[in-house]
Specification:
Chain B: Keywords: Cell inner membrane, Cell membrane, Membrane, Transmembrane, Transmembrane helix, Transport. Chain B: This is Autoinducer 2 import system permease protein LsrD. The complex is a heterotrimer of chains A (344), B (360) and C (366). With 360 residues, chain B is mainly alpha-helical. In chain B, 73% of the residues lie in helices and 0% in strands. In chain B, α4 crosses α11, α12 packs across α13 and α12 packs parallel to α14. The longest helix of chain B is centred in the C-terminal third of the chain and has 32 residues. Chain C starts with 11 loop residues before the first helix and ends in a 9-residue tail after the last strand. Chain C contains 10 helices and 14 strands. In chain C, the strands form 4 sheets. Chain C has a 6-stranded parallel beta sheet, with helices on both faces. Chain C is an alpha/beta fold and 366 residues long. The longest helix of chain C has 20 residues. Chain C has 2 domains: 149 residues, Rossmann fold, CATH 3.40.50.2300; 135 residues, Rossmann fold. Classes of the chains: A mainly alpha (344), B mainly alpha (360), C alpha/beta (366). Chains A and B meet through α5, α11 and α13 of A and α1, α6, α12 and α14 of B.
Chain lengths: 344, 360, 366
């Protein structure tokens, strides 16, 4: 737990400083992002072509969606490792429904995906909030279970673009004023979750639970129902991610989204959400998601050996959390200094 | 973490002992049923394969148990296996003798573990985030090292040893060293001051620190040991499959964590037994083996693993809740400070005095 | 490593020094006269050659045959399995399709062990690694199991016969030929491959590189990049966009993997590069039909995986029945597929790849 995890209301002066630090952190991410884009653009001007930017936005959309749900869960001191499996289950479910009933309106099929996600999230939430199973254990378990279900349903089959309705696939690449639809959806979700966490009662409760569960309990917060809500939202967003995945890629098999959970956790952690809860914002997570996507897209353009990709991402995660820690220690020290000054 | 622990404290020892016993019983039952119901399962030949298959998971689960009991986690173990394996391939291709490569690989593993340990103890970073980072980093470095190549022409004497059996019988050559390690880890955890210190810091590391336990140094050493064992597994994996490649053991960390948790170790730290973990590993691997022999598809196994994992925590919780409700109805004495049963005391040597001392 | 965490009452430094000393000693001792790569030159085990072939023997009935693909969740191998199952049914044997859900050599090894325990007569294997399975395969063969690899081979001494989908040189050649036709013989090209470890793809890429360097017909074609999509749709998709962004003058992408070409086609279809950049490679007609119809892709190639499965099953049955032993020059008849001859190193080749374009694609369904 970092200092940033404490409720900022504790000290007025501290609150302002903390706020500044959090802004500074977002600023740091932005600077890194701009630098990376600039360097890549200098190396190859095509990197900032409309097409290339659209590609990056599209690729970010999925990570962004799942990172929103993950932020809610992590802020409440949980984790959801099952998101990639939920995404796979929803993508395959939606694609199957659409392939079997070509006449079905696309929004209705999307609802199927959302419902699958919500159901998975409910399972997670019930086991964690009411069964009191640690989130890491529960979602590691459902990571296996949900993926096993996809394997079971799909077997060796693959639904290819040809079997899906044209309208659904077009939706995957369609754009408004040059901006891909999928990205707009993700941004809408981002703003909604951001608003919820910032202003809504239940959202604030999640921060309280993540900061100190026992204190939150004593303060009379309905912990199980809040946690359940967080996991249902995370599952539903993963379900939505599955629908968008199917629309975007057109080809869906049992391994859709396999291993993606680590990217999502990485985006959230790089974005400054404390892994043990109570602190961080969904906008930070969004920046993290964007940065990781840009790195993934920039490395091949920069001609970096693709083998380095993973190592770079790993190093970045470590650097981000180490930096957070150092900044937090600094702030703690300077806060102490201020208090002393106050006493005089 | 620790606060939660403290809140649920009174009922825990008995519950946990119950799960330990349950896992061991379930494992024995699985072995018996499988021997009866599945042809070929109970043969010595199958036992050989079974042991060879469970060796890497079991080895990695040993230090993982200690780390999880101490309240931390190490998700980078499989990537460490991959990186040491890649390193081994690189050095072998470079013409170094295997007798030099093996200690170097283990040393490399220890260094990788030490890096984790430094980040967790000196910088005080959350181990979950750190080891997710090194999971990606170490695997990435393995790819940087070997890229798309595989080194395969390892000395036949060594690869034969890794796959061979004692005196041509059915007991694999790797059994004695593994048994030695299992006993060493079991003793370290359950019969030494260090073991008690690990339980103490897992239950509450602030309290443990106040009680004079060098929490950081112990945790650091745990990561070094975990890395070194992963290096050893890297060597074993490379020789067993006669192939050093960057993707060796990819994804194995989840199996190891699943086995440890299935064995009744609490993810919050402070509770667990090595016997339970060994049973957990055997249960997972023999189920897998039996289902394969029974021609059940691999998908079923994925679902079963996940379900078992959740049930391993959910069932004791539910039964405890039901038990509490029953007790509330009957006018029995309050259950809270009930002395642990003898079985629980041997199974979970919890450092109660330390905890009390540690409270400020 | 048996060293457990040091009891904390004692100073750890002397201990560490002692450990370092011991290690250094071990290294020095080991350095003189150890087992190095150079001392391991001799590799024994020529293909088991004590049996003799009887070309006139009939196919045995009641054979138990199992297909072990790279992973079970793969439509390509399902198609092969259909072919193999048909042949086994014809020969009145029993058939099983089994394997791991992840494409790794280690999980495949357990399946090899399981099959040999069940005394399976013939194993049809597509290997995830050329060497990792060898010792298990040797054990299986010692217990009278015939091992036939198809699609992806293991080291020749570890199996009886390898049924190759195509001649490696032919694939590389055909890919380059199609590419050259589509870009008018000049320009920059890039390859979108499967995983960096994939045996087949790497062999084909090598052939293509050699051809590009030597064949004067391709003098104006330059290979500028090789990207790896890991046979994952999403990664392949991303790598395609990376290639196009990095190389503005790219004329063509060659993707010698079914996952890669489909993902690249999806990307091209929705981007401004459609029609500008040519795409060819190896793909299945069902996946590519749409892209050929709308002009994103002109022509691509593949062999028929079902026929490959059939041939593998016949080859396995032929070895198990004593018709062939896997030595060069032996022949056997594979039902309607016709007569095949065993080549050097026990390789049987299905035939040249089939090319699919707007004219013929609707004749195929796989």
């Amino acid at each position: 737990m970092t200092v940033a995890g404490r409720p900022p209301e504790r000290e007025r002066g501290g609150a302002a400083l903390l706020d500044a630090v959090l802004r500074f952190r977002a600023l740091g991410l932005l600077v890194a992002l701009v630098l990376l884009v600039a360097v890549t653009w200098l190396a190859n001007s095509r990197f900032l072509s409309a097409q290339s930017i659209r590609d990056i936005l599209l690729a970010t959309a999925l990570t962004l969606l799942l990172a929103c749900g993950m932020t809610m869960v992590v802020v409440g001191r949980g984790i959801d490792l099952s998101v990639a499996s939920v995404l796979g289950l929803s993508a395959f479910g939606t694609a199957t429904v659409l392939a079997d009933h070509p006449g079905l309106p696309v929004p209705l099929a999307a609802l199927v995906g959302l419902a699958i996600g919500a159901a998975c999230g409910t399972v997670n939430g019930l086991v964690i909030a009411y069964g009191r199973v640690p989130a890491l254990v529960a979602t590691l378990g459902t990571l296996y279970v949900f993926r096993g279900l996809v394997y079971f349903l799909a077997g060796g089959s693959r639904i290819s673009a040809g079997e899906l309705p044209r309208g659904f696939l077009d939706f995957g690449t369609a754009r408004v004023l040059g901006v891909p639809w999928l990205f707009l959806i993700a941004v809408a979700v981002l703003l909604a979750v951001g608003e919820f966490l910032r202003r809504h009662r239940a959202g604030r409760d999640l921060y309280a639970i993540g900061s100190h569960e026992e204190a939150a309990r004593l303060a009379g917060l309905p912990i199980p129902s809040r946690l359940l809500l967080a996991y249902v939202v995370s599952g539903t967003l993963a379900g939505l991610g599955g629908v968008l995945y199917a629309a975007r890629y057109g080809t869906v098999d049992a391994s859709a989204g396999y291993g993606m959970e680590l990217d999502i956790v990485a985006a959230v952690v790089v974005g400054g959400v404390a892994i043990f809860g109570g602190s961080g914002s969904v906008y930070g997570a969004a920046l993290g998601a964007l940065l990781l996507t840009v790195i993934n897209n920039a490395l091949p353009v920069l001609g970096v050996d693709p083998f380095w990709q993973r190592a770079v991402v790993g190093a970045l995660i470590i650097a981000a959390i180490a930096l957070d820690r150092l900044v937090a220690l600094r702030v703690a020290a300077s806060l102490r200094g201020r208090d002393d000054a106050h006493v005089h | 973490m620790s606060t939660e622990n403290a809140a649920r404290w009174p009922r825990l020892p008995r519950r946990l002992a119950g799960w330990d016993a349950a896992v061991v019983a379930l494992t024995v039952l699985t072995l018996l049923v499988a021997s009866g119901a599945v042809d070929e399962f109970g043969t010595t030949r199958n036992a050989t394969f079974l042991i060879l298959d469970l060796a890497p998971v079991l080895l990695l689960a040993l230090p993982m148990t200690l780390i999880v009991v101490s309240g931390e986690i190490d998700l980078s173990v499989a990537s460490t296996v991959g990186l040491t394996s890649a390193l081994m391939g690189e050095l072998w291709a470079g013409g170094l003798p295997l007798e030099t490569i093996v200690p170097l690989a283990v040393l490399a593993g220890a260094v990788l573990g030490a890096f984790n340990g430094l980040l967790v103890t000196v910088l005080g970073l959350p181990s979950l985030a750190v080891t997710i980072g090194t999971l990606a980093l170490y695997r990435g470095l393995a790819y940087v090292l070997l890229g798309d190549t595989a080194v395969a022409d390892f000395a036949r004497d060594y690869t034969r040893w890794a796959n061979g059996s004692l005196g041509g019988g059915w007991v694999p050559n790797v059994v004695p060293p593994i048994l030695l390690l299992v006993v060493a880890f079991a003793l370290a955890l359950h019969a030494t001051p260090v073991g008690r210190a690990i339980f103490a810091m897992g239950a509450n590391d602030t309290a443990a620190a106040f009680a004079g336990i060098p929490v950081e140094r112990t945790k650091f050493l745990l990561y070094v040991v975990s890395g070194a064992v992963a290096g050893l597994v890297g060597v074993y994996w490379t020789l067993r499959y006669s192939t050093a490649r960057a993707d060796n053991a990819e994804g194995l960390e989840l199996t190891v964590v699943a086995a440890v948790l299935l064995g009744g170790v609490s993810i919050y730290g402070g509770r667990g037994t090595l016997l339970g973990v060994v049973a957990g590993v055997v249960l997972l691997t023999s189920l897998q083996n039996a289902l394969r022999l029974a021609k059940v598809s691999a998908d079923a196994l994925t679902v079963i693993t996940g379900t078992l994992l959740i049930l391993s925590v959910l069932l004791p919780n539910v039964s405890a809740a039901l038990g509490a409700r029953l007790r509330r109805r009957t006018p029995a004495p309050p259950p809270s400070p009930s002395p642990p049963t003898p079985a629980a005391r041997t199974a979970v040597p919890l450092p109660e005095p330390t905890r009390r001392d540690g409270r400020p | 490593m048996t060293r457990t965490p040091a009891p904390t009452t004692k100073p750890g430094r002397t201990r560490a020094r002692r450990a370092a000393l011991a290690l250094g000693l071990a290294l020095t001792l080991a350095a003189c006269g150890g087992t190095t790569r150079d001392s391991e030159e001799e590799r024994d085990d020529a293909p088991a050659g004590d049996a003799t072939a009887d070309p006139d023997a009939a196919y045995a009935t009641d054979l138990s045959v199992a297909m072990l693909p790279k992973s079970v969740n793969n439509p390509y191998f399902e198609a092969s399995s259909e072919g193999a199952e048909r042949v086994v049914d014809e020969l009145a044997g029993s058939y099983e399709y089994t394997g791991p859900s992840d494409a790794s050599a280690s999980s495949q090894l357990s399946y090899v062990n399981t099959l040999s325990q069940q005394a399976t007569d013939v194993v049809l294997l597509s290997a995830n690694d050329p060497n990792a399975l060898c010792s298990a395969l040797e054990q299986a063969r010692a217990l009278e199991t015939t091992v036939v690899t198809f699609d992806s081979d293991v080291a020749p001494e570890c199996r009886d016969v390898f049924v190759s989908q195509v001649d490696g040189a032919e694939v590389g050649g055909a890919l380059l030929e199609m590419t050259a036709e589509q870009i008018g013989g000049e320009g920059e090209i890039a390859i979108l491959s499967a995983t960096a470890n994939a045996t087949n793809q790497n062999a084909w890429i090598d052939t293509m590189e050699a051809e590009l360097a030597e064949n004067p017909d391709y003098a104006d074609i330059e290979l500028v990049a090789v990207a790896y999509g890991d046979d994952e749709d999403e990664k392949s998709f991303r790598e395609t966009q990376g290639l196009l962004a990095a190389h503005p003058d790219l004329a063509a992408i060659v993707s010698p993997t079914t996952v890669g070409i489909a993902a690249a086609a999806r990307y091209l279809q929705g981007s401004e590069y459609r029609g500008e950049v040519a795409l060819t490679g190896l793909g299945t007609p069902n996946q590519m039909r749409e892209f050929v119809a709308d002009g994103t892709v002109t022509e691509f190639a593949l062999w028929d995986p079902t026929a490959l499965g059939e041939l593998a099953a016949y080859a396995g049955a032929a070895v198990a029945s004593g018709i062939i032993t896997g030595a060069e020059g032996e022949t056997f008849t594979a039902g309607e597929l016709g007569e095949y001859t065993v080549g050097p190193d026990g390789v049987v080749t299905l035939g040249p790849p089939t090319r699919f374009n707007a004219d013929n694609i609707d004749d195929y369904d796989f």
